[in-house]
User: Fold these one by one.
Assistant:
Number 1:
Amino acid sequence: MIVCKSPGEIERMRVANALVARVLAELAETVAPGVTTRDLDALAEKLVRAGGAEPAFKGYRGYPATLCASVNEQVVHGIPSARPLDEGDIVSLDMGVKLNGFYGDSAITVPVGEVSPEVRRLLQATQAALQQGISQVRVGGRISDIGHAIQRHVESEGFSVVREFVGHGIGSALHEEPQIANYGEPGRGPRMAEGMVLAIEPMVNMGRPAVKVLSDGWTAVTRDGSLSAHFEHTVAVTKDGPLVLTMRSATTSVS
Ligand code: MF3
Ligand code: CO
């Protein structure tokens, strides 16, 4: 069952998701060579709690941290560690909060110092693919239209879409129906309706699409060792089209 949210509930979700966006923007400003993902996790938890919220991932199925921080060939669910980031790395920062009974969830991939033009192209293509997916959000549209648009954009750029992880409905639970694949045929699956809230989150590999999970039970990496990027927005379906609840302000350097 897909839960539709009332205007009052969407307003509460807007507040939770705005906090996620603000924290991610601050983390992005903090990313630099020498910073550890454990430093970023500590800052994230401090900012989340200062905002009156709780980390959504910490304790979720035993996940140990506030932040998922996935470096280079790590795709998603990287556990924060004491290894300093290096110039030229990329780091995906994925974070959720619970505030006033509702969840927010968003992710960005950030370059560490200067990265190569090909890596910049990966980040831009992943972010553009997310925008293409969001542009399919409309009352009466089909859920699979989102993944179809994402896959088309990613593959037109010569990159590949991860199949094993999907986006999801979100609300008073972190993961609700429907699942939102980042690939596939259009015109399939449930129709979108006013009040649905969707976390859309393409994961894009520079090389082949296959991934595996490391022995820590969490960290997903590309099988071929190629770099991977991840962007996620939480989006409400309104009669006027998509309303991105995790929009970061124009004054921050990462859009
Ligand atoms: N943002 C991811 C998702 O939506 C990460 C959650 S997994 C967790 O599924 F265990 F880290 F919480
Ligand atoms: Co998510």
Number 2:
Amino acid sequence: MESFYVEPENIKNGFGEVVGEEFFHLAHVSRKRKGELIYLFDGTGKIYTARIVDISRDKAKCEIISEDFMKGELEEDLTIAQAILKSSERFEFALEKLTELGVKRIIPLVTERVVSAKSPKDVSRNKIERWKKIILSACKQSNRALIPELCEPVDLKNLIFTAKAYDKKLILHEADNFKRILLCDYIEGAENSKSILIVVGPEGGFTDEEVKLAVESGFEVVSLGERRLRSETASIIGVGVFVQFLISKKIRK
Ligand code: SAM
């Protein structure tokens, strides 16, 4: 069954109303008909199974049959700070995959070697709106109950200073000039962590000063092995392995 996003305020008295771009998709792209079953999600954790009872010119009225809360969502707060990539296709690909995998928060990151933005202010509103659409589309495709929060772009220094609250803070780094731990070994120690921040560098990687600053602020340098992975590969693998570990931990409980 297909999923459609509905603003929380458009779900009331046992009915949900699909409007706007979501309505256009429902009526004119997916060509849904009266009587069909669909999923509605409000992005705050609720997923409803609903039956379309009326399709008018600009909205679809759906009767709610059942609801789930936080279905398939991690209990832990997994956040990824992904360096903004020179290739917008690759960065958008990463946004889509990280959303499918189940992150709660995505922080577009500006570092020394980020080419397309010298400071967070260089990231246009249009770009951020486009990224939000990609995240919403990935939520629909993967049946997410939650829409990951897309944070305002931030530079690495500010991220490091504001990251104190996370239980676990990892900076993924491919070079061996810092004491580092393989992700699979690191993860064993993450058994009881509630909030995890994973930081991934741009095509040019992190400078030594950036890694040093992170380490001095309590980040662990984590390796994904000897190969030099593309940034988006590293974040997808890093998040993917952590998600598998957190899911298996939950199942073992
Ligand atoms: N600057 C590096 C170079 O030119 O050799 C390449 C950086 S890599 C393309 C981009 C980012 O992916 C890195 O900053 C790091 O966060 C992550 N990454 C890539 N390979 C990795 C590995 N084997 N272990 C940990 N992180 C890795």
